[in-house]
């Protein structure tokens, strides 16, 4: 019986290895009367934005941070997809710089270390003490941005890399993934900081401290924007679910075209 059990367990392990990719299978045979054999199977489901997601063909995992998420199918055009990728990286970088500055200055003020203007007043304060008028400053910024961005884009076209400054030699697939993840988080944070200011006129750290004082009272649901916030949250979540459902339920064998809410 022990030999039969051993052979059966081995066959189960072999079949399991063939059926799953990247799994760990542990099986052991016990003599008759022993405790039941336990088998542990771990399948590599792939890195998708949710388990079982069916990403579009153009999101094949080759780009950093690609988890198959594109409910609007904006990347269906290969040429535009390259620019969207660069746009996300650059906006993420600016967002990380902006969010770090907003948090740092607000924290210094709230904890009494310095008396810096809030992020939404910093421009006006700087303008008041600047030797240049607003039109001159805008012209200077446009020139500097156009020069730097033009050089960056030309470098990207030649090398395929999303930047030209790597003083510390940190460029690697792992660092690119970390950059895009932190950039996405920073973009969401920036939108949140702006929304918070319009709701209660506070900076991020000030708003956090205010919320911690009385979480039940000091939150978005106690403001006049609560209905708008609720509707927007539900709409955004439903749209993603509907778009993904259209993609998942599509039957190519019946000639059904891929869901493309944006035609390009």
Automatic annotation (TrEMBL):
One of its GO terms (biological process) is photosynthesis, light harvesting. The chain crosses the membrane at residues 185-205, 225-243. It is found in: Plastid, Chloroplast thylakoid membrane. Coiled coil: none annotated. SUPFAM superfamilies: Chlorophyll a-b binding protein (SSF103511). It comes from the Eukaryota. GO terms for cellular component: chloroplast thylakoid membrane; photosystem I; photosystem II. It holds the Pfam family Chloroa_b-bind. GO terms for molecular function: chlorophyll binding. The keyword Thylakoid applies. Keywords: Chlorophyll, Chloroplast, Chromophore, Membrane, Photosynthesis, Photosystem I, Photosystem II, Plastid, Thylakoid, Transmembrane, Transmembrane helix. The keyword Transmembrane applies. Belongs to the light-harvesting chlorophyll a/b-binding (LHC) protein family. This is Chlorophyll a-b binding protein, chloroplastic. It comes from Mesostigma viride (Green alga).
């Amino acid at each position: 019986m022990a030999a039969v059990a051993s052979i059966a367990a081995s066959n189960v392990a072999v079949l399991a290895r063939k059926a799953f990719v990247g799994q760990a299978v542990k099986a052991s045979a016990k003599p008759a009367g022993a405790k039941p054999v336990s088998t542990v199977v771990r399948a590599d489901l792939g890195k998708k934005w949710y388990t079982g997601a069916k990403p579009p063909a153009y999101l094949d995992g080759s780009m950093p941070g690609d988890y198959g998420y594109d409910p609007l199918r904006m990347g269906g055009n290969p040429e535009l997809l390259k620019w969207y990728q660069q746009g996300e990286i650059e906006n993420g970088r600016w967002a990380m710089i902006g969010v770090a500055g907003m948090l740092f200055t607000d924290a210094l003020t709230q904890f009494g270390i310095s008396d810096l203007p809030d992020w939404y007043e910093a421009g006006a304060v700087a303008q008041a003490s600047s030797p240049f008028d607003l039109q001159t400053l805008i012209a200077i910024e446009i020139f500097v941005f156009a020069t730097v961005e033009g050089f960056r884009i030309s470098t990207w076209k030649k090398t395929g890399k999303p930047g030209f400054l790597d003083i510390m030699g940190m460029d690697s697939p792992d660092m690119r993934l970390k950059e895009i993840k932190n950039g996405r988080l920073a973009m969401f944070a920036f939108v949140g900081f702006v929304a918070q200011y319009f709701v209660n006129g506070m900076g991020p750290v000030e708003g956090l401290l205010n919320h911690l004082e009385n979480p039940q009272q000091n939150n978005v649901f106690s403001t006049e924007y609560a209905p708008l916030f609720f509707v927007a949250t539900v709409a955004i979540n439903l749209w993603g679910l509907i778009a993904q459902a259209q993609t998942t339920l599509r039957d190519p064998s019946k000639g059904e075209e891929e869901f493309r809410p944006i035609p390009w």
